[in-house]
Specification:
The complex is a heterodimer. Chain A is mainly α. Helices cover 64% and strands 7% of the residues of chain A. In chain A, helix 14 packs antiparallel against helix 15. The chains are: A mainly alpha, B alpha+beta.
Chain lengths: 587, 78
């Protein structure tokens, strides 16, 4: 079930050792981890949260085909203790499959506060499977839950869902059964009033103030990233520089100069410059995790739905765009909750225009190098505006062809205080994600750029005659009209793979870093060219991973190609109008 | 007296009994799995001039568009 703390429980059970993996019969990646339970190594898989086993959304299909194609030893069903009346039918559906699930009744702390009393023993006796009350957030009852799952581990077998399909019409019976169970073993106040949540919503969902407050909150998040991130970034850059001075520079006399140039000026500086942005990115993800954990995102969907409806999207689409500001890939995966294919495709077409954290790196670097400290935040703000505008324009253009009639119904969870451990764990996932990318894309990208800009032998490094400048000359007819120099167009070629490479590639190409690199950048572009370059970087394509995700999630080469062609075309058109327009006006 | 109407016509603070859902199978399935089932009581918590409305059913708070709420048939005791 969504909003039951499933991820919290999964994280607590598996620690930080989870990984993404493929499963038979399931076209999407699921998070899984190996843990030791009762002396055996057990593979734990995090299935998507669903309301109903025989629904029509992709998430529900994922759960169904996973159960059909993968033998399972035990299944834990996580329910929200404060909403058992809504959630017990799903548990009963699973019982009907002939599996004995372990019912993990979560958020028991919240239920306590609200005066909900659950008799786990009676429930367990009636329903015929173990029932554990716990709080995954605070850890109460967690050991019992672990034991109960361990106790249920036995011979693995796949499940036949035919029985369930035949019993589709017996749904009402299940609901009655669930109601009977609840009246026997759960006592709750007739009306669950969450005073705190209602008081906060009174302000945050205010008909007039709600939307301005939402934008203020978002502005504060980005402001905080900028204010606290910059000093951290300088700190990392300083540490890397000190390390370079102490341990790497003495090597200059030992190593052949070509190798030293490659290793230190190319690889170390390239990766180091990228790494100095890690604190900003971590900070960004921490703050997003807090917003996500608090329950505010559902409010954002509520506040923005009427605007999004006019664009053929819905409030969830807006939330996905927001998530895309962190990274486009999980945001694309988040659209799985949508049932209508048209709505999903339209959302997936729009999300890649979200100014993700990797693009933010490039902008932080360029704005710091070419704009004054008072101009820089406004340039950044302008880029976020451009990001939203591109998304809205795309929805308007394609919305007519991708019409959906999916009902927009969303649960509004109560506000919850974010738990530090969850937020930290989330941050750790991002760091490890970055390191994985660093070890593949960024290193190979930086190496490629270094080779292209230093060969064939005899050419001036980074200058005329290198392979890079040949490539640049070749792309010149397309990129000259939008004010992008030949050198920068080579960088764009690598930015296509991942935006994290852009800055590292600049370092590898020029052999410069720090303020020298800023100086070099100023010779490559003036402020108008810089904005044109940034607009192009924003729109032309997010990265190879995003493209691959679009392909795998849509299962349509046509869709991914249209998306790519549209972004490339839009990027060129926007940069061209901006650059030529600004020049015409005399800037 | 009993009044038959749909959920979208309720005003803020009003409560009604759900008596049915008038929608294609897949939509009805969806609404039911979110707790909008016959026999349940629904209360309108928020109904802004534009945008979706907030409904409370038992322990669950939902937001839904008016056009979807219009598919939920209710009866109010007056």
């Amino acid at each position: 079930m969504p909003n039951t703390g499933k991820s919290t429980f999964f994280n607590r059970l598996t620690g930080s050792a989870s990984r993404v993996a493929n499963w038979p019969g399931v076209t999407v990646d699921l998070l899984s981890a190996r843990v030791v339970l009762g002396g055996d190594a057990v593979e734990v898989v995090d299935l998507p949260g669903i309301y109903d086993l025989h629904g029509f959304s992709d998430d529900e299909q994922v759960v169904r085909s996973f159960l059909e194609n993968n033998p399972i030893d035990a299944i834990g069903v996580i329910l929200n203790a404060t909403q058992l009346d809504h959630q017990l039918p799903l548990a009963l559906q699973i019982c009907k499959l002939g599996i004995r699930p372990v019912l993990l009744v979560n958020m028991i702390d919240e239920a306590d506060q609200l005066g909900v009393r659950i008799d786990a023993g009676a429930l367990s006796a009636d329903i015929g499977c173990p029932v554990v009350l716990l709080s995954a957030r605070h850890g109460t009852g967690f050991a019992d839950a672990r034991d109960a799952i361990t106790g249920e581990l036995r011979d693995a077998r796949p499940v036949s869902l035919n029985a369930l399909r035949e019993n589709l019409h017996a749904d009402d019976e299940l609901v009655q059964h669930a109601e009977a169970l609840i009246s026997k073993s759960v006592s709750a106040p007739s009306k669950l009033v969450r005073k705190m949540t209602e008081r906060i919503d009174h302000v945050l969902l205010h008909p007039v103030l709600g939307l301005p407050l939402f934008f203020l909150a978002m502005f504060l998040v980005f402001q905080a990233v900028y204010t606290f991130g910059a000093p951290l970034q300088d700190g990392v850059a300083y540490v890397l520089d000190v390390f370079r001075g102490w341990t790497l520079e003495p090597l200059e006399t030992v190593l052949p100069s070509g190798l030293y140039g490659f290793l230190v000026d190319g690889l170390y500086d390239g990766i180091g410059t990228v790494a100095s942005f890690i604190p900003v990115i971590i900070l960004f993800f921490f703050l997003m995790a807090i917003v996500e954990d608090s329950g505010y995102l559902a409010r954002a969907a509520f506040l923005t739905d009427s605007l999004m409806a006019r664009l053929g999207l819905d409030g969830r689409g807006f939330v996905m765009i927001l998530m895309g500001f962190g990274c486009n890939v999980p945001a694309l995966m988040g659209t799985r909750v949508m049932r209508s294919r048209a709505l999903r495709l339209l959302s997936m077409l729009v999300i890649p225009f979200s100014l993700c954290s990797a693009r933010l790196q490039v902008y932080l670097f360029i704005t710091t190098a070419l704009f004054t400290a008072s101009q820089a935040p406004w340039v950044l703000f302008f880029m976020y505006l451009a990001s939203f505008s591109a998304a809205f324009l795309t929805a308007l253009v394609f919305g007519r062809r991708l019409k959906s009639d999916e009902p927009f119904v969303l649960e509004l969870p109560p506000y919850r205080q974010p738990v530090l451990k969850q937020v930290l764990l989330r941050g750790w996932h991002e760091i490890s994600h970055f390191l994985r990318r660093a070890s593949t894309f960024i290193i190979s990208g930086v190496v490629m750029v270094w080779l292209l800009t230093h060969f064939p032998t005899g050419s001036t490094p980074g200058g005329a005659g290198t392979y890079a400048s040949m490539l640049g000359q070749w792309m010149k007819p397309a990129l000259d009209p939008i004010g992008i120099s030949a050198d920068m167009s080579v960088i764009l070629l690598f930015g296509f793979v991942a935006k994290e490479i852009v800055i590292g590639a600049l370092v590898a190409m020029t052999g410069l870093d720090g303020s020298a690199l800023s100086g070099y950048l100023a010779t490559q572009m003036d402020t108008i060219q810089a904005i044109s370059f940034m607009l192009f970087v924003l729109l032309y394509t997010p990265c190879l991973s995003t493209l691959a995700t679009q392909l795998s999630e849509s299962r349509s080469v046509k869709f991914a190609s249209i998306s790519l062609a549209w972004s490339l075309g839009l990027a060129w058109a926007v940069s061209f109008s901006f650059y030529q327009g600004a020049r015409l006006l005399g800037y | 007296m009993k009044n038959i109407d749909n959920l979208s016509s309720l005003r803020k603070g009003q409560t009604a009994l759900i008596t049915g859902i008038h929608a294609p199978d897949s939509t009805r399935q969806r609404l039911q799995s979110m707790g909008l089932r016959t026999g349940r009581e629904a209360e309108v918590i928020r109904r802004p001039r534009h945008g979706p409305m907030q409904i409370r059913i038992g322990s669950m708070n939902l937001i839904m568009r008016r056009c979807d709420a219009a598919r939920v048939i209710i009866s109010t005791q007056q």
